[in-house]
Write a structure and sequence with these properties.
The chain is 60% helix and 0% strand. It is mainly α and 191 residues long.
Length: 191
């Protein structure tokens, strides 16, 4: 039995409604407001402090005499963890923006050679460099000119979005380790 022209047209219209809804949602998802919201959330994620202590709180007021102490059962000192975070974050940032960047040798190039900082200034210098590089990564992801989803030309499939998430994830993991070291040493007041 042959269908009338009206029935065929209404079936096509009905079939294309979900496609139109998907297109509409895709356009809405890519809106400037959503792009701005994503960039803001990435910056907050990089800062930390939403689901765990901020990096500033974790590093602040760490007693100088305990920065190189490895509590029983802990694999690292607070100094080793801070320096590792600084080096890894710097590497992620530089890879993200500099096609000529050469990463350190893995794994030894990502860890300090000593358990303790050589002096109090080294701890402060490491913390400040970590903060500067974090601010640069936040600046990179916050810039609307940065295509978060485009493959990095000198990479092998990485995107700025992936690198920002990697930095945030890596930092959160090791900040948790510093908190544990501080708890084991009895110098952590947070929860």
């Amino acid at each position: 039995m042959k269908q009338s022209g009206k029935k065929k047209a209404s079936k096509r219209a009905a079939a294309s409604k979900p496609a139109r809804r998907r297109e509409s949602r895709a356009k809405a998802d890519a809106s400037p407001a959503n792009d701005k919201a994503l960039r803001e959330q990435l910056a907050k994620l990089l800062d930390g402090g939403m689901a765990h202590a901020s990096w500033q709180d974790v590093v602040a007021e760490m007693p100088e005499n305990l920065r190189g102490v490895k509590p029983q059962g802990a694999p690292h000192t607070a100094w080793q963890l801070l320096e590792h975070m600084r080096i890894a974050q710097w590497d992620i940032l530089e890879f993200s923006r500099n096609p000529k960047h050469v990463s350190p040798q893995f794994p030894e190039g990502y860890w300090p050679s000593t358990d303790a900082p050589p002096n109090a200034e080294a701890w402060e210098k490491s913390a400040k460099a970590f903060g500067r590089d974090l601010a640069e990564m936040k600046k990179l992801v916050s810039d609307p000119k940065t295509n978060l989803c485009a493959k990095i030309a000198h990479g092998d499939g990485q995107t700025i979005l992936r690198e920002a998430l990697l930095a945030a994830d890596h930092n959160a993991y090791h900040l948790g380790q510093i908190v544990l070291v501080r708890k084991l040493l009895g110098v952590w007041q947070g929860s």
